[in-house]
Amino acid sequence: VKVKIPFGNKYLDAIFSVPEKKPTYGVILTHGAGGDMNFPHLVSLAAYLASHGVLCLRFTCKGLNIAYRTKAFKAVVEYLKLSDDYKLSGVFLAGRSMGSRAAASVIRQLSQGDDDDDGFIQGLVCLSYPLHRPKQQSKLRDEDLLLIRCPVLFVSGSADEMCEKQLLEGVVSKMKAPKKIHWIDKANHGMAVKGRATNDVMEEINAQVFSWLRENVQLQNK
To answer: Could you tell me which residue ranges the KANL3/Tex30 alpha/beta hydrolase-like domain spans (predicted)?
Structure first.
């Protein structure tokens, strides 16, 4: 289902992937610095989640400024929260690369304000989180991650040039939130693995994301 989400005096293009049964939980998903919501990995993940009963709303926001991307993400969260069509118990925010930075930033801002005491946001999924620029390991983009309290899943390639394995493990060890890292062996920042079919890698990512979502929803429902 295609929708346009109001954002300031503009609209963001978005697509709902809707499960057959009425969903209780949703995932808001966005892309990295390049590309848009039709990036193959996002399309694949959205279809997988919907087929497993999770609503997925993916959207395009072209800005390369992280503050702008964060504002856009917030607008989408508000839109889904107030939606009459889909009454959800909670959502997970997810993004690829720069999109995951924006998602982390939204969660940090909402948790510092008073507006997320209702627990609508259940967790964060970071696909290829860009912890640093290539070859600039001394400047880590970890400030939002260290302040987040909700569960976080990282899915990263072990050969990601923007997220060195030991550095991410170091940041994660300092995080207060419940967290998990799933390493895609030998994958780069774009999740490409030499000698491995793209679909095969996407299936691994999709299954990991879904099983983690399911665990976290169950943990909260106990």
So the answer is: 27-206
| SS3 assignment, position 52 | coil
- Can you tell me the distance from the alpha carbon of 89 to that of 215, in angstroms, rounded to the nearest whole number? 15
Letter for the amino acid at 71?
A: K
How many domains, in total, are found in the chain?
A: 1
Work out whether the CA dihedral 214, 80, 154, 17 comes out positive or negative: positive
Length of the chain: 222
Mean pLDDT by 10 residues, the chain (222 residues): 93 95 94 92 96 96 91 95 90 96 94 66 96 93 94 97 97 95 97 96 97 86 60
Q: pTM score, two decimals?
A: 0.95
Please report the DSSP string for 138-202 in residue order: TS---HHHHH--S-EEEEEETT-TTS-HHHHHHHHHH-SS-EEEEEETT--TT---TTS-HHHHH
CATH at residue 90: 3.40.50.1820
Q: Which range of residues forms the domain containing residue 196? A: 2-221
